[in-house]
Structure formats: structure tokens, C-alpha cells
Amino acid sequence: MTTQVQATPQESSGGHWLPVRPRLVLASAFMLFLELALIRWTGSNIVHLSYFTNFVLLGSFLGIGLGFLRVGRSRRQPYYSPIVLAALVLVVLMFPVTVNRDTEGVLYWTSLHTEGPPIWVTLPIIFAAAAAVVMGPAELVGRCFPELPRLEAYRYDLVGSITGIAVFTSLSFLSAPPLVWGVIAAVCYLLLLVPRPRLPYWLFAVVPALAVVGLLAAESLTAGALWSPYYKVTHKQLPYDIPVHDISVNGIPHQQAMPAATRLQIERQYALPYERSSAAPREVLIVGAGSGTDVAIALSKGATRVDAVEIDPKLRELGGTLHPDRPYADPRVTTHVTDGRAFLERTDAKYDLILFALPDSLTLVSGASSLRLESYLFTEQAIEAARARLKPGGAFSMYNYYRESWLVDRLASTVQAAFGHKPCVDVVSTAGQQAVITAGQTPQAQRCAAEWTGAAAGTPPPVSDDRPFLYLKDSTIPPIYLITLGLVLAVSLIAVRAVAGPYRRMRPYADLFLLGVAFLLLETKSVTGFALLFGTTWVVNAIVFGGVLVAVLAAVEVTRRFRTPPLPVMYGVLLAGLLLAWLVPDAWLLSLPVPLRAVVAVTVAFLPIFAANVVFSKRFADAADPTTSFGANLLGAMVGGCLEYLALVIGYQGLLIVAALIYLGAFALMPRKAAVLA
């Protein structure tokens, strides 16, 4: 390993009032915090980004890579970052993309008709703005790297990243509004940008930072706006003779809290699960309990015990305070704020009726390719888990506005496959395909008005835990993704050339670029795998991202402190870890008790992550140019984010094969000198 000389104290200051180590930690924490805040905030105001959060992530990776590549090419302060952030916040607040409830239509990944700028305008703007905003803190991080030994700099970068995740997770737990995020961003800008000369500092740092705080303060103080870990939740009372509260999330009309008697009177679908069950349900499980109307209906139908599962704590909180029937105050009701699939896998309780009550999350699991919060609820394995939780003679039912007849048939076929017989299928209204699908544990436990004729020709098969994409009719990547990803890559190539100069500067680090590509695929597989095993909640998501960084930090510390095997050996360990992850089936993991499941899942998921980062650490430590090599790795991560969408075709397990092939490519491109010296 190359011997490195420690920078002198004067060199370490870099002209900054903060010493290099705390400055590096602060800048790295700010970089990660800003990335997470951008993903969260833009998705709450631009409805397209509720389904394309990956594009903000891609822009962030591009910005981080460009920030590192810019180091050494300019000594100017990165004032562009706070200026672009202020402009982005202003534009998004002035031109939000919302949903028009009065217009019926079908969007590929969402519901109803949007109002505001079209998707082909908003996505490129958000992508470019996210890259420019995150590029500033990344440049400040990159300037610290030459002042420290390679792995020590990487170590403090990881410590800062973990800190940024911890801070944002804590604010999510506290339901902090965007005003708090803006204040933290402003403080970080003012601490990290050097206040010399004073006039540019005030004009290009202080004024934009204060503008961001002011704009987010105005949004945060809007009447009726609550911030859950998933959504911007707004509500208003409608001007009816009866108490009705309309609840929207991220600008999308989502639920209405109204008396159970009124709901049963105006919409027949809410009564059908009880009419199609052969016996009056006494013990009921409701997944997607939300603001409480379905819970109130179950109580009105004579339920003696109701387990209400809702993933969003703020929706549950609103149900407790706004619903006119006060269902959550009833002693017969027990609330579980968790993921529905995770609850089904963990509980030992048995029910007369299990009801999936309009579980349509309207958002993606952050950082995971096209995985919605409710994706694992509609797989064949999930319906089988629901059947296993029914009492003898019990029934399962789901209802929603499915918007496509093939989607109704797909779900009905899934229920048929899980239960072994045809379910009852009631299409209550062809407008929006309002339908109820009910299946008894046995054919005798259900009472259908008429026999379901079966799925129409061309109906796609049931979805599985490996490809849980209910709303994707064919095993293809939708054209909108292909076009947008192509534009993202084209813009990225131009930006890298403009910022970093000729591509030959990064040519010696082609293997580090591929390591970044493959690692992002590994991270995606970890996020989606843990979401299946432990729930798609924000807590699980935060723990997984934090755990990945801890595994990376552990790899760095092992490489710094101990003599590790040569790179060819570590590549062998890495490929063995990928093979192990491929061989261990999710169904077997789900059958284990939760504590043992956690131990095995962490071992299987983090072994290849640890090995991959020992490989990266050894290679990075001997790189001639630390900022360019690190930037190349980060740009590779952006390309890996694009390749995540292969899961739509090959499934999440297939990403392991793609990652293995890319790692083999990295090994082939590794300089022979690095293989000998490492």
C-alpha cells in the first residue's frame, strides 16, 4: 500500500476557519442530509417525483461526482449551490404538480389527471437542479481529501454521511416540517463557505440561504399541512351537512374521513366484504386503516376485535382526531403503525375477515427502483400469508379503484392461485374500475352474487416477491423511463466533460467506476430485500441505508488497521458472497423467527457489501489522484442507479447476476500493478 504523508496544520486548514477533519465530517453530513431532504421535499410538491424519486437520487450522485471532479480546477467558493437551491424552492412552490380530482384518467404509475408542468419538463429541471445543489457540498468534501491520507479522508466522509442520515431520520421521527430542513441547510452553508470577501459571501450565500428559510417557512406554516415520514399531508373540512374531512397526500386526494353510515350509503363496495362472507366477522384485520372509516364500518358490522394496520403515523393521528365516529377510541380497536405485509408475516393471530382497504400508497420506497410502499402486499406470496391467518370459515377481501380491467383480473387471478378456487369479483362501477375481490378460506365460506368468469385473455400473471410490480402490465421498462434515463445519461456526459475536462483524466479509474455501478445495485437489492423481510417502513429504510454505510466504514477500518488479502482474493470473497445471496431464498428467510431472520439477513446482505468495500478501499488507497478516482466511483453509482430499472424485467434477484458481471469487469480492468501491490 502506498505510503502517504500527513498534511501540515497550515495545509490542513485550507484557508478555512474549521480544521480539516471536523470540516470534512460537517460537509459530508450536510451532503447526505441535503440529498435526503431534496428527495423528500420535491416528491411532496411534484407528484411525478412520488413515482420517480430515483431521478433525484441520480441527480445527487451526478452532483457529488462532479463536485469531486471540480476539485483542483477552481478555487472559487461553490456559491452556485445555495443560489440554485433558492431558485429550485421558488420554482417548485410557484409551479407545483398536483392532481385534479374531477378528471378521471389513467396514468401509468399514479391516479387521476395532473395539473402543472408536464413530466418531460419537470424531471429534467429537477434532475439538473439536484445535481447543481448537491455539487456544492460535494466540492467542499472533495477539497478536504487531498489534505488527509486517502483512507482517513474516506473514513471521515463515511462518519459524516452516517451523521447526516441519523439527523434526517431523527427529524422524520419528530415529523419536522421543511422549515427545519431549510434552517439546517442555511446554517451548514454559512459555516462551510468562507466569509471572505464579505460582499460575495452576503450576496451569494447569506441572502439565498435566508430566502430558502423564508420560502420553506411560508410552506410549513400553511394551515392543515402535516409532515409524516412519507408525505406532506393536508386536510380540510368539506362544506356538507355531515362532517366530512378530505385528506390529501403530496397534492393527491387520498382519503375522506366521514361517518360509517354515510359511507355505506353512498358507496356499496364498503359493505360487500361482509355480505360475501358466509359468517358475520367478529375478529377483523384491516390493512390500510388510514383515517378510520373502514375501522368504523367493521365496528358497525358487529366486529368484537379489530386490528387496524396503518403505515403512516400522521394518517392514523388524523383518524384519531378528525373522524366523526371516533373509531380509534373504541376499546375493541388495536392500532399497529407498521407495514401490512410485515404484520401478516409476524402475527400469530387468526381472523374471521382480513381486509385490504384501498392500500394505494401513492409513493415509492425512497431509493428503491419502482418499489411502492404497498408493492409486497399484492404478490401471490402475500395473499398466501393472508390466507394462513384466517380462521376456519374466514374470508379475505380487497377493494379499490383499480382503473384498469386487466388489473382487476390480475388481482383476482392472484387470489385464485393463493386460495385454490375462484373468488367473488364485484365490479361495482366501470368508471375507474371500482371493484371488490373476496375469497373464503374454502368455497363454502364465500357467497358470490355470480360466478366470476375468469381472467380475460392477455391478463398478466400474478406478481411475485421478486418482481412485485403490480401496475406494470408487461415485463418491460416503460418508454418514459427509457427516454428519461437516456436524457439523464446524455446530460451527465456533457456535464462531466464541461466540469472535469477530457474523459482521459478518468480512464485509469475505469475499474473504480464499475465498482460504483455494481455497488449501487447491491444497495438496491439490500433495500428491497429488507423491505420484504421487515417492512417497507421509513424506519427499516433508514436502518438499511445506515447499515450499508456502517458496513462500508467497517471495511475501511479493517483495511486501514489490518493486512488484508490481495485484491484477487478479495474479489473471490465478493463473488462468493454474491453467490450466497443468490442461493438463499426470501421464502426461507421469511419462515425464520424475526431475531434469527435479522441475523441471517444481515450476514447474507452485508457480506458482499463488506467485501466490495475492502476491494474499493485497497484500490482507492493506491490511486494517484484521490478526488478524480473517488469522483469516477460516484459517477459509476449514478449509472448503477439507472441500471436499477432492469429489475422491472429480470426481478431484484437478477440484479445480483448483473452486479457479479460488472464486478468481473472491474477485476478485468484493474491495473496489474494494483493487483500485485495490494
Automatic annotation (TrEMBL):
Q: Taxonomically, which superkingdom?
A: Bacteria
Q: Which residues form a coiled coil?
A: none
Specify whether NAD is a keyword of the entry: no
Q: Which organism is it from?
A: Nonomuraea longicatena
PANTHER family per the UniProt record, alphabetical: THERMOSPERMINE SYNTHASE ACAULIS5
Q: Specify whether Endoplasmic reticulum is a keyword of the entry.
A: no
Matches recorded under CDD domains? AdoMet_MTases
The name of this protein is Spermidine synthase
